[in-house]
Amino acid sequence: MTILCVRFQLPPMYEAALPELLGLLEEFTPVVEALPPDGALADLRGAERYFGRDAVELASVIRVRALALYGVDCVIGAGPGPMLARMALRDARPGLTRAVPVGEEREFLAGKPVVALPGVGTATARTLCEYGLDTLGRVAAAPLSTLQRLVGARAGRELHEKAQGVDRGRVVPNGVSLPHSRLRSSGGTPTLATDRPFTRDELDPARHRRALLSAAEELGARLRTVDKVCRILTLTVRYADRSATTRSRTLKEPTAHSAALTRTAYDLYEALGLQRARVRSIALRAEDLAPAEQASHQLTFDPVDEKVRRIEEVADRARAKFGPRAVMPGSLAA
Fold this sequence. Notes:
Number of helices: 12
Order of helices and strands: EHEEHHEHEHHHHHEHEEHEH
Radius of gyration: 21 Å
Shape: globular
């Protein structure tokens, strides 16, 4: 077990604390990959040798230091690779690290449903289940040729390896996590993403829009914190039946302006034409990021827009000084 997947239990809109918590991990290893808004991967191979402790013992030290220094608890999964550490995290709870020991990968995966494997989407899971391959143990035992016939040559090979616990992933230092594609590698530029799950399947469009507003304001604040702008905004709506709809739009100009992101998010949502849809969660992702200094802002001579931008600057300073909760979600809506 050399990889930790850590999720810090941050209060809502408290993403400003993540860089400091990443710094805590970097005291143990330089190989840390941020998983915004509240997590990270850490490769502890060198740290285990240096400190003379295994990954589970180091996880306990990290948890105690996060609590002592920042008042933040965390949930930690450990495994031989990033995929297994992520999956172990789902079974973890505060105060107890869930670990997948080397040599026990197949046993850990065997009873899990195929949809639990990162990269397996609804359609792939449905196809596999139709042929009785409803658990990862059955997928691992199936002939490679059968899987390739069902889901394709490359995807079948990757699925077969992953179901057997073969984890070829690696931790990318300072990288921003990209969403898993369906058993295909995810390339491209770093992204920032945020998710708004509902406590129950939500029918009310007004609540959908409030979730969009909150997510867009969070993305804007995070972009401005790291001095980035985005060129593309992507909306993903997940439904009660676990299906999802994803739509993207290229912005008129690269921006980190929360009001502009909110307007685009609303447009994407309205274009879906949802009728009494039972929505489980709404996610926004800012893509094609670039340094803010390279972006230009088209002057509109709109006093309302300029006022909102000035208020935004004041709110950012308040967050930096007093924490993200100093500004209530939705308070910057134009």
